[in-house]
Design brief:
Layout lengths: L1 E6 L9 E5 L9 H7 L4 H8 L2 E6 L8 E10 L3 E8 L8 H4 L17 E5 L3 H7 L28 E2 L2 H8 L8 E8 L26 H11 L10 H10 L6 E5 L2 H9 L9 E9 L3 E3 L3 H7 L19 H13 L1 H13 L15 E5 L5 H5 L2 E6 L13 E8 L2 H10 L4 H4 L3 H11 L11
Parallel strand pairs: 1-3, 7-14, 11-12
Antiparallel strand pairs: 1-6, 2-5, 3-4, 4-5, 8-10, 9-13, 10-14, 12-13
């Protein structure tokens, strides 16, 4: 395997270090690879740092690519800092010479138009030689061919099979008065990640929706304007769009553990698939309300176009550097446009945004302005610019996972607690379906003798 690193900055590789937003890492990476590396823990990052690298700039630059290696890697809250060096005995590779061979290196059609860090299959030097892009005698002390080094599968986990067992396990852990607890249920413990639908990729690692977020947002408003007439903020509109299944940067969570268990069990086509309930313990000072300025900053990212790229300052060395970087950050065109959107709903908003604030994942308590949110005790995780939630948890989100099996039994036990289609989805058509199914005649089975 090899790392393929693309920056939008023409001088991006001149400093021999680069800071990556975690959300940009593993884009355009095949699912079988990204599934093994997606946690971006020390173990995964160490493996990635050992791979050879092909350093590139976005297509509009048409700048030559370089072969090199990562010499140091530092994992931070929302970013990963790498230090690197080029291989001195390998010449640079002109853009024009490698462009015709993009499919051979698994470089996709739109990949060169986006800053990202992908991991590709194959031996980089052998592949470059095979296309005549390097002399046959070019060498470098890189990984041997075929050494994938992917982490092994996790050990088998204990499965919950009854409501009593679930309650005992979930409620056995205590939390402090300074923490809130939320839950999320998945019908398959291997089929879902802690990311909003907007950030999802296909099996080849291609982004399905993110690059057209602003179009998704505007098109639904254009075609269904009356449905959004009562919404006063972008967050309100995103919540309604989420309700109607449009991909957004929101991830649903609930304060009710039984609701999460219901969602882990309810998919009728996955009754035999092990599900999962995820428990989030969140510092109370990290929980925001619908009218928070920071929430407005993150929500209005949905209205920026893909071309309105946000550039972040390097980590400052002094207070003076921090102030200068903050001024530059807020004076770039994309952030000025973000200021404009925020001021539409908050006219007195101070036009000064801290870079780290819009790269966060926030826990948000929204207005319970529809029956579904109320019945599901709903809240949201709101994802900032290229934000990524650590699947193992971090200082803000402590994460516990519970595997769920014997779903048919659990659904019956939840029904006895009045957790069912009729109460979770409080619409008359759902209630009608639930009542009809509950009282449907079932012919008794006659045992043969």
């Amino acid at each position: 395997m090899f790392n393929f690193l693309v920056t939008s900055q023409p001088d991006g590789w001149d400093k021999n270090y680069y800071e990556w937003e975690k959300g940009r890492i593993l884009e355009y990476t095949e699912e079988k690879i990204s599934n093994k590396l997606e946690k971006l823990s020390e173990k995964e990052l160490k493996l990635m740092a050992a791979l050879p690298c092909l350093f590139a700039c976005e297509a509009w630059n048409r700048i030559a690519m370089r072969v090199g290696r990562i010499t140091k890697l530092v994992r931070r809250q929302s970013t990963v800092l790498i230090e690197f060096e080029f291989e001195s005995n390998i010449p640079e590779i002109s853009y024009d010479s490698i462009e015709p061979h993009f499919p051979y290196f698994d470089i996709r059609k739109w990949e060169m138009n986006r800053t990202h860090w992908a991991v590709k299959e194959g031996d980089l030097l052998d592949m470059l030689r095979a296309r005549g892009l390097l002399p046959q005698n070019s060498t470098a002390p890189l990984l041997p061919a075929g050494d994938t080094g992917l982490p092994s599968e996790q050990a088998e986990v204990v499965e919950i099979r009854s409501l009593q067992e679930y309650i005992d396990r979930v409620l056995s852990s205590t939390v402090s008065k300074e923490e809130d607890v939320y839950y999320r249920g998945h019908s398959s413990r291997t089929g879902y990640k802690l990311e909003p639908s907007l950030f999802r990729k296909d099996k080849d690692g291609n982004l399905l929706f993110l690059t057209n977020e602003h179009l998704l947002y505007r098109e639904l408003l254009v075609s269904n304007a009356s449905d959004f007439a009562s919404d006063s903020s972008t967050l309100d509109r995103l919540v309604r769009m989420q309700h109607y299944s449009l991909p957004t940067r929101l991830l649903d969570i609930t304060s009710n553990p039984l609701i999460a268990l219901y969602f882990a069990c309810n998919a009728k086509d996955k009754h035999n698939v092990v599900g999962e309930v995820i428990r989030f313990v969140v510092r109370r000072d990290a929980v925001k309300y619908f009218d928070s300025d920071t929430v407005s900053c993150l929500a209005n990212l949905a209205r920026l176009t893909d071309a309105e790229v946000i550039t972040y300052p390097n980590t400052p060395n002094s207070l003076a550097d921090a102030e200068a970087g903050l001024d530059l950050f807020n004076n770039q065109a994309s952030i000025k446009r973000l200021h404009h959107f925020i001021c539409e709903e908050k006219p007195h908003f101070e036009r000064r945004i801290r870079p780290d604030d819009i790269r966060r994942v926030l826990c948000v308590k929204g207005k319970r302005n529809n029956d579904r949110i109320s019945s599901q005790s709903g809240a949201f995780l709101l994802f900032g610019d290229n934000a990524k939630l650590n699947e193992e948890g971090d200082d803000t989100f402590k994460i516990s996972r519970y595997a769920v099996a014997d779903k048919k039994r659990l659904i019956k036990e939840l029904d006895a607690m009045n957790i069912n289609d009729s109460t979770v989805f409080p619409y008359i058509e759902n209630s009608a379906k639930y009542v009809a199914e509950k009282f449907k005649f079932v012919a008794p089975q006659i045992k043969s003798t």
